[in-house]
Amino acid sequence: MQNIERKEGETAPRTGLLSLFFTFFRIALFTFGGGYAMIPLIQREVVEKKKWLTDDDLLEIVAIAESTPGPIAINTATFVGTRRRGFFGAFFATLGVVLPSFIIIFVIANLLQQFAHIRAVQYAFWGIRAGVLALMVKALVNMAKKCRRHLVSYAIVLLAFVAVAFLSLPVILVLVACALVGLLEATLEKRRSEK
Amino acid sequence: MIALLWKLFFTFFKIGLFTFGGGYAMVPLMQEQVLAHGWATEAEIINFIAVAESTPGPIAINMATYIGTETAGILGAFFATLGVVLPSFTIILIVAKCYEKFRRSFVVGGCMSGLKPAVIGLIASAVLSIGGTVFFAGGVLVSLTQASFWLSLLICVLALLLAFEKKTHPIALICLSAALGIAFGYLADLPVG
What we know:
The complex is a heterodimer of chains A (195) and B (193).
Chain A: H1 17-29, H2 39-49, H3 55-66, H4 72-115, H5 119-145, H6 151-165, H7 171-194
Helix pairs in contact in A: 1-4, 3-4, 6-7
Chain B: H1 2-17, H2 27-37, H3 42-53, H4 59-95, H5 99-103, H6 106-135, H7 140-144, H8 147-166, H9 170-187
Helix pairs in contact in B: 1-4, 2-6, 3-4, 8-9
């Protein structure tokens, strides 16, 4: 259906709101795991098929999504929607990216409530919890590999870990403090290079 | 009911506002907030993570919808999801108009250079507490004498090997862990909680 509204190139006058909605609905429906798993599909649908963005635009958006809070998928959908059709474009693109999750999870949550007492289901989740731990260790190692090789960064990793794991400080407080430390370090660095 | 919906909305709004980076970056804050409100146990949260990982869509949206549904039905799901989406939506709406400036902003860059390593430390802390729940649900000393401890350790080590050596897909790992859980559970006749 949405192919009827397909536009050729950036010069196309208006992008249909429904087209924005269905494109992001499809992207969300076929991405598992969230985050960066979504980028290749966004590239194919939004850059190659719809030509709503260039590859450079997409790189910019990923960079911005990384430095703004919230899920990358939401950030990208809102960004593309805004640039194509302003507020309503953002609204429909974001609604599209949220709706598949919402419907699927709502159904699953209700089903699981009914099956939770079954012995096999309890065993399955007992096994799954051990698997999830492994997945999180993998994610942690991948993130640590990308960490900036700098003493200040290492110190922040350690302090954030100790603050939450052992001192039970509030997560938000720790995040704000670390952001300020980062800003302070960047300021000192800038001063030093200016001298 | 309205108080609960407002609390769900506000809590997930905070989670959306303070999650930097995709995927698991939201887990530490979500874990803290959900446990503090008593909306789920730690074991349930780990179950949610598995469901969120193996269903389509962003993990943050999946988690918000799931916890909202479990806590207050469809309205709970609606308000939790709205809460987690709204900060990103609003911020990007503003940033999209001046994104060149935002990209080159000194303040944003400085804060991010502190936030990125912080998220690593926070996830490490989440891994530690999840590890505690997975292996030592009945206390460290009791757990070491139980078959369930050694069997879940076996599943975890196997999953780690597959994840690192074979780059097995997360969903395949979750399915395998579930199958092993059922097999071991019946074979060792583990107690059900």
